[in-house]
Amino acid sequence: MAVAFQHEATNGDAITARHGLMSPCLIDSTNEGVCYRSDATPKTRRKNGMLPVSRRLFMSGTIATLAAAGIGSRSFAQGGPALVLGTKLELNTLDPHFFNGFPQGSSHSLIFDALLALDSELRLVPGLATAYRNIDPVTWEFDLRQNVKFHDGSDFTADDVIATLERVPKVPNSPNPFTQFTRSIQSTEKLGDHKIRFKTATPTPTLASDLARVFIISKKYVTGSTADFNNGAAGAAIGTGPYKVTDWVNGQQLVLARNDAYWGEKQPWAKVTEKVIKGDAGRIAALLSGDVDAIDEVPTIDIPRIKQDKRFNVVSGASATVQYIAMDAVRDVSPFISAKDGQPALLGNPLKDRRVRKALSLAINRQLIVDRILDGSATPASQFLPSRFDGTSTKLKVDPYDVEKAKGLLKEAGYPNGFKITLHATGDRYPKDKDIAQAVGQFWSRIGLQVAVEALPGTVFFTQATKQEYSVFMAQYGTEEASIGPRALVHTPGGVYGTANRTKFSHTDIDAAIEKAQAEMDPVKRKPLVQAAIEISMNEQAIIPVFHPNAEMASKAAIAITPRPERRFNALMMKPKA
């Protein structure tokens, strides 16, 4: 009997995410796996060899206690308190299938549900599906939750799942599409209103965890455009989630009302407002003045001051995100690479040479960035995910800061005098993103490169990066399962692969290693294959991992925040303290 995923950490601070590394079911002799039961108790768990799971939804406290603590004192709606959040990042869209990004997923998870969900420790838990079975390597069956209503009162059925999966690949102009999670599905068969069968083109061991990332919409809106979803309360953003949209102004705020017909536990907040406050000083001021109840992306320089004030809490959480540098290693001529002033013209694109890519990595002092710019609120990176996550490589180490070795590699590759290059980055998206890009530019100049750094608004940056307009750029990518990073970031784009590979990086050995891991359904055999794919990706320097950022949040003292590794910031993470 193969265990699908485990709930206990394997060591002191290990976070297990086995759902991506092994068949997500308990397999019996009939080869039909029962993944979980919502009625499992400690007794039945031991008897049946099953692990209990339950979606972690938060209970509410009393209104009197909340009012006394200053939570929701500005208004009480529908018999409960209001929660106001100040967030740095814009939502940009209410279309749950347009942009696979963490600010979007954070807000969308309040409005929509997926078939499965991830709890705060990245374990698969029931969502709109109550159970699933892996019948054979290419056949999966899901039992759907009954008596679930969309916000407009219509019933949730298998037809809505089918409609959702039809829509995902048809959403145009997505800067980071969800197709990597759905393209493996070759056919979908309705077995009843609340039962569905998927056939995949090839064995897909990650299908269950992949579908935890796809929010289900009503079949009424299968042909709805992104603009239709963005039409606020009058639009197509009708989900089954714990909150429903009452107002949305792009770039300003999202206002939600509690869904009292929600199938899960009742939420403590009757009204939730997410206010976009891009400026760090503005968010801090809003918290200190009481205009908001909690904020994200707290500047590390302000953390000591907030901690000293007993009215507030500061919460720091390690993330499953990597800040990385992507390089154009495909084109013979790259748009922002040329010979240094006064030097002969370059022969070709230096980034096509692995030695040059490795030199750029060795030239970066990651620890200095973490210590001096981020004030310790990150860890240097050696791969896609922090090493505490299950399935990551135990062999890879952070590249040391070695200027002389980097210079030697450039000379060996035929660039002893360096070259001219522009590093593009966001200037308003991530903590200290512009400062970090400037630091990387300075490090590269020490090995002989002539570096320009251009920091752009996130909306401009991602559009241009997706169009392959840069030679080198810095961004972040968050993932909760070890194989997603290689699949999305460094596999040659096509089909289910390379959906976030904006430089179109391509390497046959990397592709083969990833595909071999994706074809292996046996969890014990698959884990080393995933690790091997990660290792060859890093050895070829397909990307340069720089650091894994922490999530820094602050709230009023009466609010308890449970940080999430995928860096979400929303009402589902917050509950009133008893």
Automatic annotation (TrEMBL):
Keywords: Signal, Transport
Annotated ranges, domain Solute-binding protein family: 124-479
Domain of life of the native organism: Bacteria
Annotated GO biological process: peptide transport
Cellular compartments per GO CC: ATP-binding cassette (ABC) transporter complex; outer membrane-bounded periplasmic space
SUPFAM superfamilies membership: Periplasmic binding protein-like II (SSF53850)
GO MF entries: peptide transmembrane transporter activity
InterPro entries linked to this entry: Peptide/Ni-bd (IPR030678), SBP_5 (IPR039424), SBP_5_dom (IPR000914)
Subcellular location(s) of the protein: Periplasm
Signal peptide range in chain numbering: none
The family this protein is said to belong to: Belongs to the bacterial solute-binding protein 5 family.
Protein name: ABC transporter substrate-binding protein
Species this chain originates from: Ferrovibrio terrae
